[in-house]
Amino acid sequence: MIPPLAHLLSLLILLPVAGAVVIALTRREAVLQQKLVGLATSLATFVLSTRLVSLFSDTAAIQFQERHAWIPAWGISYHVGVDGLSLWLVILTTFLTPLCLLGSWSSIETRVREFVVFMLLLEAGMIGVFVALDLFLFYVFWEAMLIPMYFLIGIWGHERRIYAAVKFFLYTFAGSVLMLVAFLVLYKAAGIRSFDIPALVAAPVDPALQTWLFLACAIAFAIKVPMWPFHTWLPDAHVEAPTAGSVILAGVLLKMGGYGFLRLAIPLFPDAAVRLAPLVGVLAVIGIVYGALVSLVQPDLKKLVAYSSVSHLGFVMLGIAALTTTGVTGAVYQMLNHGISTGALFFLVGMLYDRRHTRLISEFGGLRAAMPWYFAVFLLISLSSIAVPGTNGFVGEFLILIGAWSFSPTLVVVASLGVILAAAYVLWMVKRVFYGELTNPKNQGLPDLSPREATVLLPLVVLAIVMGIASPIFTRRIEPAADALVRQVREATRPAPASVAERAGAAPAPGDGR
Amino acid sequence: MNAVLDLRPIVPAAIVAVTGVVVLLAQAFTPKGGRAPSSLLSLVGLGGAFASVWLLGSGSAEGAVLAGALAADGLALFLQGLVLGVAIVTVLLSAGYLRANGLERGEYYALLLFSVVGMMGLVSSLELVSMFVALEIMSVALYGMAGLDRARPESQESALKYFVTGAFASAFFLYGVALVYGVTGSTSLERVTRALGVTGPDAFPLAVLGAAFLLVGFGFKIASVPFHMWAPDVYEGAPTTVTAFMSAGVKAAAFGALLRVFDYGLAGLASHWQPLVAALAIVTMALGNLAALAQRNLKRLLAYSSIAHAGYLMSALVAAPALAGEAILFYLVAYAAVNLGAFGVIAALSKDSREPATLADLAGLAERRPALSAALSVFLVSLTGIPVTAGFVGKFYLFNAAVASGWVVLALVGVLTSVVSAYYYLRIVVAMYMEEPVGEDRWAKVSPSAVLALALSAGVTLLFGIWPAPMLTLARLASRSLF
């Protein structure tokens, strides 16, 4: 089966939607069929998406492009494509979704049909965000995706799920509407009557205006990342979400923030991006240290992992703020790593929760003896999460720190502190959960990993190691695009070309006529 | 003027009016105990009128008739089509609702049809006095409909309140007409435009005052702050299908007239009324949404939401006429579908004068009525303005119009208050999907015609959310008659 190449990306979006529609039409009782169709659909999507990798040429070009007029009167088109910045994020999405469905095979017992439907719609929405090359289309996917996530947290979450779901929704929605206004202002100011992202990148607007637009977009993305101080929705959402929700949230959704900076905020508003990069960098480093310190004192395993995300994503943002090829490549790579490591950690915490219905670290201790395989996987993933050499995390953080050195040595030094703190909170947690005597009688005879659980974890473990020792497979596809972005920003912000100022001054005029 | 009187432009309204009379007569000639086929007759009449609007739209009948009082231009035909669509969906919703609540009376349909005649006149009037007459035809019929459920004091209160404030609004409107006439010497919008254009606005403080009075009159009809006080009580008290019809139909008709009067007739005074409208839009969006937060009753909540939506619509009114017209027309379609749907769900569930009144009444609805809950969720998502619904495209369009005309502040207030609105719309979704059902299912079985009505509304909401281009084009063509 070789699908027509021209529609590969559209197929990736449509396949999960089609699966969701089919499942929505089944009877409520046909639970097994719903799970199977859901899993099959997501696996097929993954297999299809691997063709992106095999056919991808290692250049900075946008590939697999498709473009159809959608709302011609406003210059809105259905324009999709991938480049090195988005390629792996698409794969990450299609890779994690079947794992999530498999991982929740037995832990989701109520309203299975709706669960599978929302998971597939979420997948379609996430792929859509990563491949959209039109501001309108991007916004549609960005927002539409909120709804399935909202339901996933609100219906299948834990005790305070409704509070967490509403908080998640309102936070992200508040950020995105500001971005929407920024898009509208940009549309008017650019004066090319188009929402096409590459076209708008080629028509930069007045630097003074850029600051406002950049800030509006940056808030939307910073909430999603989440950057300190916009992170407060994250621990709630993570802790209350069901395992699959947490994995998707950490694995993919948070990446949309970083990706948004790379795809929109920076290329569209290069002047502002360079001017405000120190601000982003400082907030990122505050996030690194803050997230790590808060993780240290968490009594709850899931909260610990959630706050560690704030810290890890701080690294990503530091790499982005540095705006060097190495930094940006590292940032994209670290987004993938975080998806793998933190995704796996959430799976692991979820599996423990399924057994004990608690996530308090103090409830455990000495689990090493009861669950040796579980322990082995947990330790390995923990090591990758704290960036031990040989694991994926090391490559990402190393690239970011190197790439950010020319940006600000001070920030790199402080960020390195975060690496040490990460080792502290993770290893201390591992010690308290797994080492020592098995004192709590409730932990006696906990079953080790089931074959299904092992199937879920195995691909993640393999990837954590492969991405640690064979990183060029991934980075060589990221780098050209990262380099092109950095170059574009440099060119756009090069001082005093008269033509740029002239263009910026003249651009708004045609829009005024409307 | 032509030797032969061309009456084609008023054919659609005439069909509806005649149907109204037929429905009344059929009721009178039905033997005691029998049932007149009122809803069927109404559907036939409305369908016929819709077809004739369609034919007029594809033909070339553009000219004004009845001494320049009425026209079948793009704006008129577009909104007449919309109002007829709203009426058809209302009739579909009403059949089951009236039966389940013991309100089956022929005059309901007759009043509905007469009200539609008023709305159709309102959107096609080129002249202020005929506009006033149409406004009254529409309103008087609605007062009667609001009080239809005579056994319930709330329904009576609703009718009386609506009547008193409505009369008040009419007085303002009429005073505004008088002032404009006094300054320009005409009530024809075309002559008003010309008169205001020649001398420039500064010579006409009285005309500005007239415009302000007209704005107050319209403000009552579209329920913009500070003329909104009646809306929650009236929406809550009136039979729910009437509320659905009112919220969708009146808003469409009144905004159509508002567009014509302000963006065409009083365009010369734009620099005077624009800041006023902008200020009203801001307070309407803010107060409507904030007040909705505090509501426990579903219909009151939707009433405040409808006030807020008047604010969104007004924020596009200050834009350049070309943008304002198309954005507002598209939004009116999206809004009508969504509001008919949301009130329609409440109506479809109501039985023996009891309806889901509070959030608690909807708790766990998704377990028992998955399709109905999904439909209501679609409507609420659209009201919030989230893709892939028509409400999102509509809001995008409205705020784009505001931004493109330099009113970024209106767009900002609009989107930020939309975030506030997300909270109260989501509470309904939370109740339906995330709370456990209490007691047993005591709501009505949804009638087949209501299923059709809700499916239509949800279908339109999603269709224009995903593929809005054809409707946008239609709205653009229709709005050309404004300038």
Write up what this structure looks like:
Chain A has 514 residues and is mainly alpha-helical. Chain A contains 22 helices and two strands. The model of chain A is unreliable at 498-514 (pLDDT under 50). Chain B has 483 residues and is an all-alpha fold. In chain B, 75% of the residues lie in helices and 1% in strands. Chain B has helices at residues 11-29, 38-58, 74-100, 106-124, 128-146, 153-184, 189-199, 205-222, 230-237, 240-265, 270-293, 298-317, 321-349, 365-368, 370-384, 390-404, 408-434, 448-466, 469-479, and strands spanning 64-65, 70-71. In chain B, a hairpin with a 4-residue loop joins strand 1 (64-65) and strand 2. The interface between A and B is medium-sized, with 36 and 34 residues.
Helix-strand layout with pairing:
The complex is a heterodimer of chains A (514) and B (483).
Chain A: H1 8-24, H2 31-55, E1 63-71, E2 76-82, H3 84-103, H4 112-131, H5 135-144, H6 146-156, H7 161-190, H8 197-201, H9 207-224, H10 233-240, H11 243-268, H12 270-296, H13 301-322, H14 325-356, H15 367-370, H16 372-385, H17 392-405, H18 409-434, H19 451-469, H20 472-493, H21 498-506, H22 508-512
Antiparallel strand pairs in A: 1-2
Helix pairs in contact in A: 1-2, 1-4, 2-3, 2-4, 3-4, 3-11, 3-14, 3-19, 3-20, 4-5, 4-6, 5-7, 6-7, 7-9, 7-10, 9-11, 9-12, 10-11, 10-13, 11-12, 11-13, 11-14, 12-13, 12-18, 12-20, 13-14, 13-17, 13-18, 14-16, 14-17, 14-19, 14-20, 16-18, 16-19, 17-18, 17-19
Chain B: H1 11-29, H2 38-58, E1 64-65, E2 70-71, H3 74-100, H4 106-124, H5 128-146, H6 153-184, H7 189-199, H8 205-222, H9 230-237, H10 240-265, H11 270-293, H12 298-317, H13 321-349, H14 365-368, H15 370-384, H16 390-404, H17 408-434, H18 448-466, H19 469-479
Antiparallel strand pairs in B: 1-2
Helix pairs in contact in B: 1-2, 1-4, 2-3, 2-4, 3-4, 3-10, 3-13, 3-18, 3-19, 4-5, 4-10, 5-6, 5-10, 6-8, 6-9, 7-10, 8-10, 8-11, 9-10, 9-12, 10-12, 10-13, 11-12, 11-17, 12-13, 12-16, 12-17, 13-15, 13-16, 13-18, 13-19, 15-17, 15-18, 16-17, 16-18
